[in-house]
Write a structure and sequence with these properties.
- The protein has 423 residues and is an alpha/beta fold.
- It folds into 2 domains: 106 residues, 2-Layer Sandwich (Alpha-Beta Plaits), CATH 3.30.70; 293 residues, Ribulose bisphosphate carboxylase, large subunit, C-terminal domain (TIM Barrel).
- Strands 7-6-5-13-12-11-9-8 form an 8-stranded parallel sheet, sandwiched between helices.
- Helix 13 links the parallel strand 11 and strand 12.
- The N and C termini lie far apart (56 Å).
- The structure holds 2-carboxyarabinitol-1,5-diphosphate and magnesium ion.
- 2-carboxyarabinitol-1,5-diphosphate (CAP) binds next to helix 15.
């Protein structure tokens, strides 16, 4: 049997390096590493007559780090094992069969370091943070937005009205919810027409740039059609549920070069990222999404309703990008310099309300988009007041003023804090 463990191996900047958390099942950690390295590359469960030295020399990965106290294992794969530009194949290799092997109790892909050859084979974000700030004409403050609620149920006109109220109340962006596509009571094409018409009216009334992020999630060809429909009506954004549609679908949309900002929702991520011992880290998901080319990505809130502990969120902020570029403290992985890939706007969403804006900015900095669904439309005085309360809380946070004190002269914020507090 081929041997993959080589503790003296030093990964090169041409390797794909994977960090796993490994929990063996009745075998040693070393034996588990041999199985993982083999099954994710050129091996199988038994010796085979068709293997030869030449293949092994060219394509054999090296297990070069095994930490018995943390269960962390690092494997360096020759990049010839992978098809550049083909994320599906890359993941079928390093995140495929190995998750189902009987010899493993738990396995988590914690991080991937991609070499330049692979990074260059994907387009990356078309706009990124600079392009979005230029489009919205917002220089350096966090962007604030909402999700039309109820998630689904409103008709096209009602949907557009909630969006309008959110914009005139002061929010920059309004998105569809992740499970709103084209329903019998809310048809996609009509929703776009109604909502973009309202967006134009909100821009006229406020004098500010306003953004609508319609959810085009559907079969890939239909997504292209829906994106073109949005564009034909003056829309600049599309939203995609990137995990339920899949990496190849996302890549098709990105590679269509539509000239539209891609907002990536991560619905279903909890099925693979939530278990700290098994699955794939959100850090890895975020790297892949940036590589393929989303412009903004949900990364959790660390303070809201969704799972995503401060550590998990911090990991995404602090993770060292790769063995060639070192992260500056507190810099988002999504923002870090990564060859020629533009930085991606982190989106915090889920259980947020105005009272949580100061801690959010403290954890995630100012290059974030904060989205408030219930925390906007649940305001005692309705959507417009909810939007105003969010802006008031943002203004107070940016002026480093105490929210409760600021609320004494800002009644919308005062009512929001009365209902939801500051935690
Ligand atoms: C938030 C939200 C977002 C989730 C996504 C929802 O609504 O619209 O989709 O937060 O989670 O449907 O729950 P609320 P994440 O503001 O009313 O909670 O951003 O962590 O992927
Ligand atoms: Mg949602």
């Amino acid at each position: 049997m081929l041997k993959y463990i080589d503790i003296n191996y030093k990964p090169t900047n041409k390797d794909v390096v994977c960090e796993y958390y490994v929990e063996p099942n009745k075998i040693t950690l070393e034996q588990a590493c041999e199985h993982i390295a083999g099954e994710s590359s050129i091996g199988t469960w038994t010796t085979i007559s068709t293997m030869n030295e030449k293949i092994a020399k060219k394509l054999k990965p090296h297990v070069y780090s095994i930490n018995h106290s943390t269960g962390e294992v690092k494997i360096a794969y020759p990049n010839e094992l992978f098809e550049a530009g083909n994320m599906a194949e890359i993941l079928s290799s390093i995140a495929g069969n190995i998750f189902g092997m009987k010899v493993i109790n738990n396995l988590r892909l914690q991080d991937i370091i991609f070499p330049k050859k692979i990074v260059d084979s994907f387009k990356g974000p078309e706009f990124g943070i600079p392009g979005i700030r230029k489009l919205l004409k917002v220089k350096d403050r966090p962007l604030v937005g909402t999700i039309v609620k109820p998630k689904v149920g409103l008709n096209e006109k009602q949907h557009a009205k909630v969006a309008y109220d959110s914009w005139i109340g002061g929010l920059d962006v309004v998105k569809d919810d992740e499970n709103l596509s084209s329903m019998s009571f809310n048809k996609f094409d009509k929703r776009i027409e109604e909502t973009l018409a309202r967006r134009d009216k909100a821009e006229d009334r406020t004098g500010d740039k306003k953004i609508y992020m319609p959810n085009i999630t559907a079969e890939t060809n239909e997504m292209i059609r829906r994106a073109k429909h949005v564009k034909s009506l003056g829309g600049e954004y599309i939203m995609i549920d990137i995990l339920t549609t899949g990496w190849s679908a996302l890549q098709t949309i990105r590679d269509a070069n539509l000239g539209m900002v891609i907002h990536a929702h991560r619905a279903m991520h909890g099925a693979i990222t939530r278990n700290p011992k098994h699955g794939i880290s959100m850090l890895t998901i975020a790297k892949i999404a940036r590589l393929i080319g989303v412009d903004q990505l949900h990364i959790g809130t660390a303070v809201g309703k969704m799972e995503g502990s401060p550590i998990e969120t911090e990991d995404i902020c602090d993770e060292i990008e790769d063995n060639m570029i070192r992260a500056k403290p507190k810099e988002h992985m999504l923002e870090q310099k990564w060859f020629n890939k533009k930085p991606v706007f982190a989106v915090a969403s889920g259980g947020l309300h105005p009272g949580l804006i100061p801690p959010l900015i403290k954890i995630l900095g100012k290059n974030i988009i904060m989205q408030f669904g219930g925390g906007c439309h649940g305001h005692p005085d309705g959507t417009i007041a909810g939007a105003r309360a969010i802006r008031q809380a943002l203004d107070a946070a940016l002026k480093r003023q105490n929210l409760q004190k600021y609320a004494k002269t800002h009644p919308d914020l005062d009512k929001a804090l009365e209902k939801w507090g500051t935690s």
